[in-house]
Design goal:
The chain contains eleven helices and no strands. The chain is mostly helical. The chain has one domain. Helix 4 crosses helix 5. The longest helix is centred in the C-terminal third of the chain and has 28 residues. Keywords: Hydrolase, Lipid biosynthesis, Lipid metabolism.
């Protein structure tokens, strides 16, 4: 799952959202330095990643990209699934709803600027300036996002092939997303209820 999906899976809880978005930038014991809500968001991100990596539909989606990108196939699937989240009417009723959520996410992250790792702070500037979260809904935005995967990698130079594969196999990738999300949303709802009812209810404060 990529940036838009992780943001959406945070249930609009500010602390959870911040932790979910910065989790990849928080290493080792540093996760324990954050307030309870952000720490819960960090753990939420890792729960989602573990669930995603073990799901059969995600493994099938990786076969689209693996012959060309090998170990980076998962990164291209993550970006691909953000396209489907952005266009999923269960998540966003229309483009205006997606835009509103994108702005909510940027502002929430900015409001918690002091908790953001330095590297994430720099990325947030461009994320907001170029409105990454909104543009996952379009093919133009997806082409740019595939380019971003390549720029952030150490060994890749070609994003055009990934974008072409995405377009060529769009029905298969959509089917994989549908199967995956059918299992993901109920799992996350159970997790949310557990946070409210269990010992982690302080995360909402």
């Amino acid at each position: 799952m990529n940036y838009l999906a992780h943001a959406y899976c945070s249930f609009r809880e500010p602390g959870w959202l911040v932790g979910n978005m910065i989790s990849d930038f928080v290493k080792g014991k540093k996760q324990y330095d954050y307030p309870p809500a952000i720490y819960t968001g960090i753990r939420l991100h890792r729960l989602i990643d573990t669930f995603t990596d073990s799901h059969a539909a995600v493994q099938e989606a990786k076969t689209v990209f693996r012959p060309h990108y090998r170990l980076y196939a998962g990164a291209f699937v993550d970006v691909s699934f953000d396209y489907f989240v952005a266009n999923d009417p269960r998540c966003f009723a229309d483009a205006a709803a997606l835009e509103s959520f994108a702005q909510f996410t940027y502002q929430t992250l900015q409001d918690h600027h002091d908790f953001l790792p330095e590297k994430f702070q720099g990325m947030l500037h461009y994320m907001r300036l170029q409105n990454w979260l909104y543009h996952y809904c379009s093919m133009w935005g997806m082409e740019k996002s595939f380019g971003g995967v390549v720029r952030r990698s150490q060994h890749l130079t070609d994003s055009a092939t990934g974008f072409a594969l995405f377009q060529q196999h769009l029905p298969l990738l959509q089917a994989c997303y549908n199967a995956f999300s059918a299992d993901l949303w109920p799992m996350l709802e159970e997790w949310r209820v557990a946070q409210i009812q269990g010992s982690d209810n302080t995360a909402l404060q």
